[in-house]
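Fold in tokens:
===
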Amino acid sequence: MRKETKKPAASSLSVEALENVADLYIRVSTTEQAEEGFSVEEQETRLRSYCEAYGYIINAVHVDPGYSGATLERPGIKEVIKDVRAGRCNKIIVWKLDRLSRSQKDTLILLEDVFLENSCDFVSLMESFDTSTPFGRCVVGILAAFAQMERENIKARTMMGKQAGLKDGNYYSGRTPLGYKYERQANGKRALVVDPLPAQAIKEMYRLYNSGRSMSEIGNFIQERYGLFLNLGRTEACGAVSRTLQNPLYCGRVRYGSQEYEGKHEALVTPEEWQTVNNTIQSNRKEYNRQYVKSDGLLSGMIFCGCCGARMSICKIGGKGGKRIKKYVCYSVSKASAAMVKDPNCTNRRGYFPITELDGIVLEEIRKLTLDPAALDSLIAQSKTEPEPAQELFADRMSELEKQAARLLNLYQAGVVEIEEIQERLGAIKEERAKLQRTMEELEPAGKMSKAAAVECLDSFAGILENGDNEALYNLTHSLIEKVIVYKKDVVIHWKFC
């Protein structure tokens, strides 16, 4: 981003000149930098010539080189917004509309909520219009729609090309996988080749896991022997080992969604070795679940607080006669694990549900479905029209945090407060937004269970209860239910089939 040299003092300018102060905005994406007519220099030359012809004073030139127009997360456009809101200019001039944004929504937000809201006109040279006229504002809306359509077409074509490349065995990701590196081939394309040292570490992970070593032990070994995962703690290193062992890339496969294809890259382990390791992982996970249900209750691992979105764990709470009772409690309330706390001020402080009580509520809802098949159809039909309540709750909070941050920045730009006075609050807002984002990702529903599969599970419910098989009951409940959200005395069940 470049700024102009110092402008003439305001006292030396006429009133007419003060009303014609412009910011120039230039953007090129990485794929356009080499194309004729899209270069930064070419755009700037044309914009300066336009300003000279109309007698406009240039306040600043803001450039976003190599940035996509899909979002507003660009340093140059942010500086433009600051200048407009601070009243430093009353015109924004671009070479072409899609330089501003390729999103219809973002274009209209900039026009309505930033430019026009602050009495700043928008001018596009190629389309020959400006927003100082009603016709110009109308045309902007129409062209923004076409710009977004083109962006979506480009995205669709890119996705089709990616799918075709995956079927051919090419690997696509924004991050180079551990154990490999990219090298430029004779045909000019990049390809995955083995990176010897980390590749040896990957092979060691599979060998050690097959020999009975735990993922935690393997993580420590890899850190000490190979110097990998050094920036990770013990728990994070264990998770990195788990993800590595379950990645089919290392047995020569590339994955896209639920589909896998034979890759062009060199495998680090044989398919048989990879499958053996993953069969053991699944077996150990089931054994863990069998132990988990005996101590932690039917809903362990899938119960969330409806206030802050944190998971709920088991705590022993004092009861009548001094007897301690196991209850589900929000991590933000119990503070049992600092890493699991979502909001230290969570208001779900009265949601101490005895395990037997909450488990009983859920089991009763399952029982109702077994007795009334129409209820299952009703839930499935209802889910097609109703929005996700928890997602809406957290999305509303995210929106409120965005508004709070914007208000603080407006106060700073207006000179009411210093940046030091609001830094701490902005940091807290950023941290809360990150936690909410992680929560929303955790609550994102997985693939839906078919109705036939749900009916099959429900048919086995009565027999499992009669036999008193706690392990089978645990597995059935987790097969039918995605998550359970509890807020004070309200319990919301999210089924996997709707």
